[in-house]
Amino acid sequence: MIRHKLCGVGAAMITPFTPEGKVDYQALACMIDYVIEGGVDYIVALGTTAETPTLYMPERAVIAMFITNHIAGRVPLVMGCGGNSTSEVLDQLREFDLRGADAILSVTPYYNKPSQEGLYQHFRTVSEHSPLPVILYNIPGRSGVNMTAETTLRLARGMKNVIGIKEASGDIEQMQHILDRRPEGFIVLSGDDGMTLELMRRGGDGVISVAANAFPKRFMECVNYAKAGEFDRAEKAYECLDEAVHALFEEGNPVGVKCALAEMGIIGPTMRLPLVEGSGALREKFRKLIAEYDLR
Q1: How far is CA 193 from CA 64, 122, 137, in A?
Q2: Domain of life here (predicted)?
């Protein structure tokens, strides 16, 4: 069942760019191989970490097809399909080739700050038109609106193909409210790497991770311990990652993770404006942390 396949760690895939700012498909292929070889449970394409707002719609369609083809069934794939116009999201559902994907991840509409009823009606409409299961994505720090636990549960109970949520509210009590009242089989995933183990300790199902792009083997070690209920070992294993994970977000995401990957020689650091490359100080911090904790 797809719900079980989407527990654990989903790598929120970056979009590498050439120094000229074009999509670097060779580097993208290397990234896909890197995280799969690192043991991630599945890949999430065209999310926040992919710099999706800077990608033209035709680029998104090509990237979706490229990732699908390069994964070649090795791990499940979740495709980002979201926006702040419901009709535009429905256009994405029609225009993207979703045949190789297992579910979609759809973010709360941003900037226009809908009410809770507006959020419910948006996701109800997306759910009714989606050919794939839907994972909700709540990230108030970027979207400007928090989807409450009550709205999430209303969707979980009323829409059969709404199968889970990526919760990036940073509010562990809100997440606990969902965990305590969710229908059977509804998956709750952390949207914050640093909250993964705490959420799993409380009964959560895993994380859609930025850190898994840069440090997949080390991050998977932590989560695999947590999956087995060995939370003390998970916390101990996470100690070597703690500083590096914090550093990933010091200058914003995905600036930090691209900076770390560039320091490891896996991709280049190029961003698309309005994002800019990580500072020299951040790169030096990653150089020291990667060497000190053997994070390569």
Answers
A1: 24, 27, 15
A2: Bacteria
Residue 141: partners with Cβ closer than 8 Å, 6 or more residues away: 168, 170
Supply 232's token pair.
């003390």
| Cβ-contact 290, 264 below 8 angstroms | yes
What is the DSSP pairing of strand 206-209 with strand 8-12?
parallel
In this prediction the pTM is 0.96
**pLDDT tens, position by position, 266-290:** 999 999 999 999 999 999 999 999 9
Active-site residue, selected from the candidate residues 120, 166, 225, 285: 166
- Rounded CA separation 165/78 (Å): 12
Collect all residues with Cβ–Cβ distance below 8 Å to 248 and sequence separation of at least 6. 193, 210, 211, 214, 256, 257, 260
Question: Who's near 14: CB < 8 A, 6+ residues apart?
Answer: 31, 49, 50, 51, 213, 254, 257, 258, 261, 267
Tell me the Ramachandran region of residue 51: left when phi exceeds 0, alpha when psi lies from -120 to 50, beta otherwise: left
166 is catalytic: yes
Contact of 295 with 289, CB cutoff 8 Å: yes
Give the active site residue among 34, 42, 120, 137. 137
Do residues 90 and 118 lie in contact, with contact meaning Cβ atoms separated by under 8 Å? no
CB–CB of 107/82 below 8 Å? Answer: yes
pLDDT in tens, 53-105: 999 999 999 999 999 999 999 999 999 999 999 999 999 999 888 989 999 99
Count, residues in the chain: 296
* Mean pLDDT, the chain, integer: 96
